[in-house]
Design a protein that fits this description.
Blueprint lengths: L7 E8 L8 E3 L15 E9 L14 E5 L9 H20 L3 E11 H5 L5 E2 L6 E2 L5 H9 L4 H4 L4 E9 L9 E4 L9 E7 L4 E7 L7 E3 L7 E9 L10 E4 L13 E10 L1
Length: about 270
């Protein structure tokens, strides 16, 4: 790995462009005649702080991000192993980090640009667009979708949506994950965006750029550690409720660094 005497880098991140109506993004091939997204993102150079030496101080309730050990060995080519062994490990990590009474893992994505471009089933490219996976509306809706009979009771108390992100097999050097400190995101920076699947339409937040935003990352995160990202929190007591994240190319990564391969698991934490 390249020596990193500096504590920050300059990197390009894609942000939402100003839009008069709710942006739309297709999560699958759009119908003939329609674009994959209703507006092109704005590519902006931003300062990204290297917090690798201070990651123990990061907090889900402050920055909206935490780093935890997660060295479970899993065959990520086996969906059953992911939804049993790896889901259980993610649930335990989130419970330990948050004190949640109940944690349920419910979805995952595997990402590798070369393998996705080669057409390998089940692989997607890293998302190089600043976004947050859930909104004020879609967070509770996910609970209703997954637990229709329990929803009223579960939504009557605090819950959060927390993503568990980590490299699959080797450190994430070339295209790490950048996270926007939740304290530096104002409500007007978050744009409701329709995410259109073949069978349903979800909603995420796209992030509009503002110079006051603080971006952070951990270079070459090892596959024995995971980032916890808070994508929704029903509590309105001053703690972080939403953040945003985006993959970006690290200009200081080794030229021969292997392509990033990562796994992310979405969990619901009930308190």
């Amino acid at each position: 790995m390249t020596d990193r005497p500096a504590t920050e880098i300059q990197a390009s991140i894609n942000f939402a462009a100003s839009h008069d109506k709710r942006p739309e993004i297709y999560a699958h091939r759009p119908p003939d005649g329609e674009e994959a997204r209703t507006s092109e993102p704005s590519r902006i150079q931003v300062r990204v702080e290297d917090v690798g030496g201070q990651d123990a101080s990061l907090s889900l309730d402050v920055e909206g991000m935490a780093v935890v050990p997660l060295d479970t060995v899993v065959d990520f080519g086996d969906p059953d192993a992911i939804t049993s062994t790896y889901y259980a490990a993610c649930e335990a990590s989130v419970a330990a980090a948050t004190g949640a009474e109940r944690v349920v893992a419910f979805d995952y994505n595997l990402r590798s640009a070369p393998r996705a471009e080669a057409g390998e089933p089940g692989l997607q490219r890293p998302v190089k667009f600043a976004h947050n996976d859930y909104t004020e509306a879609s967070g509770p809706q996910r609970v209703r979708d997954l637990f229709p009979e329990e929803a009223d009771q579960l939504l009557s108390r605090r819950f959060a949506v927390i993503n568990v992100w980590r490299p699959m097999s080797h450190p994430a050097e070339d295209v790490p994950l950048g996270v926007c400190d939740a304290r530096t995101i104002a409500p007007e920076h978050l744009l409701q965006t329709a995410l259109k699947y073949s069978e349903r339409t979800g909603e995420i937040y796209s992030l509009a750029y503002h110079p006051d935003q603080r971006w952070i990352y951990i270079p070459a995160l090892a596959p024995t550690r995971a980032l916890l990202l808070k994508c929704y929190d029903s509590a309105m007591d001053g703690r972080a409720r939403f953040t945003a994240h985006a993959a970006f190319r690290d200009p200081t990564a080794r030229p021969d660094a292997p392509a990033r391969e990562s796994v992310e698991v979405r969990t619901l934490a009930f308190f």
